[in-house]
Amino acid sequence: MPIEHVLLFDRLRQLPWPEPEEGRPDPEKLLSGEPVNRTWNLYESPDGKLLAGVWESEPGKWRIAYDETEYCTILEGHSILADEEGQTLDLHPGTSFLIPPGFKGTWEVVERTRKEYVVYL
Predict the structure, then answer these.
(1) For 45-74, what is each residue's pLDDT tens digit?
(2) For 68-95, b where at least 16 C-beta lie within 10 A, e where not — what string?
(3) Inside any domain, residue 76
(4) Looking at residue 26, which CATH number applies to its domain?
């Protein structure tokens, strides 16, 4: 496979971004706040199983349940990821982490958060 198939996030950040997709957590999952989420999906594999881009959200807290695998790096802000037992991870700029399928818990945006993500469906 040629080198041009290597995905460089530095290069993606310099390309013109599409309009973001805006959304909100499902009202049934929302625990606090009125967060608005924005997603810039910058890459999708031909089979649609691999996605990469940038996501950001305003403050709020909601329940999450992952069927997919997601690798992230926090670029800005502060969030707290908690599992079902209440164990937490503070997420700050520079924090990189992987959320495996089957993870359930909460995502709390304390301060507007922006992250780069790679999702495998």
Answers:
(1) 999 999 999 999 999 999 999 999 999 999
(2) ebbebbbbebbbbbbeeeeeeeebeeeb
(3) yes
(4) 2.60.120.10
